[in-house]
């Protein structure tokens, strides 16, 4: 992994210089299966290890058309630029201090879900580690990548279930396994009060729609 991160940073520096971004004093913020995240204190850069191969079908085009500089979407951190060619993909977001989510705060969770439905996207990897508070204390999806997908009813239902588990079972050490079991046919006992959560979401959606007219 160390050699992969080093090679990723070297390639990132080349592209940042080419596209007019400051490549000095890059700091590694973290990495995952998709790629590594770096910052120069003015922007945050996500370098995707597999480039275009990270994204299925036309997912990258969808992300570009839906999220790039779209100020109407408030549930996802701002995507200000996408640097890409036939081999490399880099997501650029403005630098901002973010603070970890520690559970509860159902209203902010519902706001993200309502924003998702209103703007026809889903986030397939809803999890406490992938949402954070910005400097204005707004909860945002911060993990920008292939988990951002076009809206489907089944995909949205799964997002709602994962959001529910995120809200009320964030402290569970087996939360990731619990979310994986959503794909099984057996109903989870942890979802026994999901109807209340969905009713709150529907009320939230009605308020948003009524405010648009």
Describe the model.
A hairpin with a 4-residue loop joins strand 4 and strand 5. Helix 3 crosses helix 6. By secondary structure, this protein is of the alpha+beta class. It is globular, with a radius of gyration of 18 Å. It folds into 2 domains: about 90 residues, Phosphorylase Kinase, domain 1, CATH 3.30.200.20; about 110 residues, Transferase(Phosphotransferase), domain 1.
Note the main sheet: 5 strands, antiparallel
Number of helices: 6
Helix/strand/pairing category: alpha+beta
**Count of spatially separate domains:** 2
| Beta fraction | 15-25%
Assembly status: single chain
| Count of strand segments | 10
CATH topology of the largest domain: Transferase(Phosphotransferase), domain 1
Fraction of residues in H or I helices: 25-40%
List SSEs in N-to-C order.
HEEEHEEEHEEEEHHH
Cα gyration radius (Å): 18 Å
Biggest sheet: strands side by side, in what order?
A: 1-2-3-5-4
Large-scale geometry = globular
**Average pLDDT value?**
93
The CATH architecture category of the largest domain equals Orthogonal Bundle
Instruction: Look at the structure and give the CATH class of the largest domain.
Output: Mainly Alpha
Low-pLDDT residue intervals, each spanning 5 or more residues: none
Terminal CA distance: 52 Å
Features:
five-stranded antiparallel beta sheet, 10 strands, globular, three-stranded antiparallel beta sheet, Transferase(Phosphotransferase), domain 1, 213 residues
């Amino acid at each position: 992994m160390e050699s992969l991160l080093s090679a990723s940073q070297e390639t990132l520096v080349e592209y940042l210089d080419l596209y007019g971004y400051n490549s000095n004093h890059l700091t590694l913020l973290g990495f995952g299966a998709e790629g590594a995240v770096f910052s120069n204190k003015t922007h945050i850069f996500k370098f995707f290890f597999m480039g275009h191969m990270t994204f299925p079908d036309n997912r990258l085009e969808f992300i570009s058309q839906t999220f790039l500089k779209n100020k109407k979407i408030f549930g996802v951190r701002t995507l200000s630029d996408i640097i890409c060619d036939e081999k490399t993909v880099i997501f650029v977001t403005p630098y901002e201090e973010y603070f970890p989510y520690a559970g509860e705060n159902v209203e902010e969770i519902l706001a993200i879900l309502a924003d998702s439905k209103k703007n026809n996207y889903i986030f397939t990897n809803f999890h406490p580690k992938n949402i954070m508070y910005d400097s204005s204390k707004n909860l945002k999806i911060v993990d920008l990548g292939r988990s951002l997908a076009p809206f489907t009813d089944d995909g949205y239902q799964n997002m709602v279930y994962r959001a529910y588990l995120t809200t009320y079972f964030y402290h569970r050490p087996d939360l990731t396994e619990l979310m994986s079991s959503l794909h099984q046919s057996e109903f989870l006992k942890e979802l026994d009060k999901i109807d209340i959560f969905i009713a709150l979401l529907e009320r939230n959606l009605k308020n948003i729609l009524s405010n648009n007219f």
